[in-house]
Amino acid sequence: MDTILEVFFLPPMAIARLGSSDTPMESFTWTEDPSVFGGDMTIITPQVSLEVREDGSLCPDLPQSIRFRDGKSLRPVAPFFELWVTVQSGKDGTVKEVPLTLNLLAELGASTENIRYRITAGNRKASFRTGDPACSYTAMVEVAGQDCKRYPLLGYSRHTAGQAPLVLKDHPIPLGHFQVMRPTPETKLGVDLSQLRVRFTPAKGKVYGPPSAIAGPASGLPPGEAAAPLSEAGRVYEIVPPENRILNENTVWSKYILGREYDDALPSDSYDGANVGDNRSWGVVDDSCDAVIEAYLAIASERYVATARVLVGPPDFAPDRRPFYSIADDLADRDLDSVQVNKDTEQVTAEEIQDLFHRIYETVSLMSLDSARTRSIRENDSDDQKPNFPGMPQIDKRSLSGEDVPYVDKSPDLLISSAPQEESISVKRDRLPYKDVAHFVHTPLTDIDTLIHFFRSHQRHIERLIRPPFGHFHQLTDNPPPNSEPNPDFRDPRILRDKLYDMRMPPYMRDSDENPLSLTRRQYEELMALVKLLNEPQAK
Length: 540
Known about the structure:
This protein is 19% helix and 22% strand. It contains eleven helices and 23 strands. Strands 1, 9, 10, 13, 14 and 17 form a six-stranded antiparallel beta sheet that branches. A five-stranded mixed beta sheet has the order 2-23-22-11-12. A two-stranded antiparallel sheet has the order 3-4. Residues 222-233 and 415-428 have low confidence and may be disordered.
């Protein structure tokens, strides 16, 4: 008889996306456009999708097209999680990973009655800023393995005596739904429907606030600058719909002010009320969340636990554009060995770097470099010290201009002076010159032959143009002065210049902690090693 060694979920982590439609998105994957004029651009291709029937059973289907919305309602992304097991054969002792199915459960002398599930979903963003646990809100549901009803996740603020809960139990915030799928002994379209699965469906993408969250102005001004009078701005918006003004107004979240009395969270301006007036929070939260799904399998005297995580985010408004820096890249940077680039691995490495530059192009196609540059220069100016050093790119309005040579060398349109009276005619004609130039520069680099030629002819330029990632702990010195000159090979978060924005690639992009974004350490090392290898003298 086989023995279970481990129970686990696949995938162990997934991203769900908010949407107000009652119909979730179908499955799709990324492929390259095969058409003559496709230019190898990324497109999406439908994959076998699972439709959930009323009784919780599944019906596989291969959609002909992908629909992202029903009318004005966006479809949510609602991931499935499969239960798998690592089993050891009772005959020869071999170990393998297999899906947990009805047949396997029966062979083990068990059934779905031996399984229980628990999901815990929560939003702690307001609690993280204020330091008050009563400003978080969570929901927890436990479901038996044979219970295939769809359960709502109703979040409210757990609290103790003397604490003011943000979300009252009588007026919870829906955080989505959880459902155990009903396994059936059949296979359709290559999908084994007897496998055990659960599904998480995220919430609608709504915002909630206290009774005072009625209307407010929009402002893009930096902290400390007064917003324009409403009569001049003319941009007053409803903060929260009347039916969603259900939060407790007497909490610290409605009194929170950026950088005052509380440890500042980064990015600091990512809450409703920031950059408006005195930066006081409007007390608003949303129905996004993170969730942990657990499965408990009890067989004889053994108890096994599987865990998966769900991250809930906004809709993906560019699903055919891949990020150059993803969670997968972060995990690879943490778990995989350092890159070894040599003649034997040159072709594989070049293809990986080409894919990286293809993703960089896709990211650039979604952003306004002009807007990012303006924001970054403004944030640099907010620091009174603003240190810079000879040979480094500019950090003020001269950044990415004719005064930022040798970093600027790819297009005459960028070789302009920062002085308004010296602007070229092309800049006056085009309101977004940097966006167009970024597209012009990155398009050729999606072709591998062009990319290799660029690496062979611009080694020094590439080495200084790519922003290095933060260093490993063993590379950092003890207590460096904040105004120290940066190391060219890695950054130190304690050195002020390493936290200032400039035009180094990726230009002006902001990491989740409000520092300038870089490639991952692994991406950076692989790129630099390939460039070095391509420029080594060739043996005759």
